[in-house]
């Protein structure tokens, strides 16, 4: 988690376990992403905006609070909740790759249940593969790479690369400041 969370370094294992739970449960990832986007929300907001039953909404919010990825920001009724910033870097056991887990990645995982392209990509390449694809999606939207370059680098088909890049486009635009001219020019073949 972000160092801004003021948690002791001894809690890094708890941080990792909390984030891992988000990445395993698309419903929790979707709720976390919603709270991160909204800034603050009540359970009633969650129920209405995410179309969740009352019991489910309370259960999910409480799980995120217990996992320490969401804080209670107002104890007055109705309670308000806000997502903590997540920025956790993990290295593979072999030490050959690093992945940064951010709220954008968690948002992408949260879309798994409603986006077949993201779901298929995770099934084939795992969350680590999705993290890599998200990096390419940001670069693509900035006009720095093409789907063909991504396909070549990752040894996947150009069609698979284009499909995941398109699926991740809304995530990129919600979480990153992308210059609209960069993407427009990259589609025309203009270097930015």
Elements, N to C (H/E): HHHHEEEEHHHHH
Task: Please compute the radius of gyration using only Cα atoms.
Answer: 18 Å
Largest sheet: 2 strands, antiparallel
Query: Kindly, what is the distance between the CA atoms of the first and last residues, rounded to a whole number of angstroms?
Result: 33 Å
| Shape label | globular
The average pLDDT value, as a whole number, equals 84
List the keywords.
disordered C terminus; 4 strands; mainly alpha; two-stranded antiparallel sheet; two-stranded antiparallel ribbon; 9 helices; disordered N terminus; 192 residues
In short:
α2 (26-38) crosses α4 (54-66), α2 crosses α5 and α3 crosses α4.
Structure commentary:
- The protein has a two-stranded antiparallel sheet.
- It is mainly alpha-helical and about 190 residues long.
- It has 9 helices and 4 strands.
Q: Secondary structure elements and their pairing?
A:
Layout: H1 12-24, H2 26-38, H3 43-50, H4 54-66, E1 70-74, E2 80-83, E3 87-91, E4 98-102, H5 103-110, H6 116-141, H7 147-154, H8 158-175, H9 180-187
Antiparallel strand pairs: 1-2, 3-4
């Amino acid at each position: 988690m972000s160092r801004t969370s003021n948690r002791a370094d001894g809690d890094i294992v708890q941080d990792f376990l909390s984030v891992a739970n988000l990445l395993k449960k698309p419903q929790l990832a979707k709720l976390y992403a919603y709270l991160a986007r909204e800034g603050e929300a009540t359970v009633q907001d969650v129920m209405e905006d995410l179309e969740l039953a009352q019991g489910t909404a309370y259960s999910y919010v409480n799980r995120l609070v217990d996992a320490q990825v969401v804080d209670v920001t107002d104890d007055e009724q109705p309670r308000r909740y806000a997502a903590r910033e997540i920025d956790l870097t993990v290295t593979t056991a072999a030490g050959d790759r690093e992945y940064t887990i951010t709220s954008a990645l968690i948002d992408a995982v949260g879309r798994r249940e409603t986006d077949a392209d993201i779901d298929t990509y995770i099934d084939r390449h795992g969350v680590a593969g999705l993290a890599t694809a998200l990096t390419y999606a940001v670069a693509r939207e900035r006009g720095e790479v093409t789907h063909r370059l991504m396909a070549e680098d990752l040894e996947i088909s150009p069609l698979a690369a284009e499909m995941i890049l398109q699926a991740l486009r809304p995530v990129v635009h919600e979480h990153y400041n992308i210059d609209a001219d960069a993407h427009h020019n990259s589609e025309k073949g203009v270097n930015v």
